[in-house]
Amino acid sequence: MKTSQHFARLTTVLLCSALFSVAHAEDTAAKLPNVVILATGGTIAGTGATSTTTIGYSAAKLGVDKMIEGVPELKKAANVRGEQVAQIASESMTNEVWLKLAKRVNELLAQKDVDGVVITHGTDTIEETAYFLDLTVKSKKPVVVVGAMRPSTAISADGPINLYNAVLLAGSKDAAGKGVLVALNDQINAGRDVSKVNTSTTDTFKSPDLGFLGFMQDNKPHFYRQPVRKHTADTEFDVSKLEALPQVDIVYGYANMNRVALDANVAAGAKGIVQAGVGDGSMAAQMLPAFREARQKGVIVVRSSRVGAGIVARNGEVNDDKEDFVVSDTLNAQKARILLMLSLTKTSDTKKIQQMFYTY
Ligand code: DAS
Question: Which pTM value belongs to this model?
Answer without folding.
Answer: 0.92
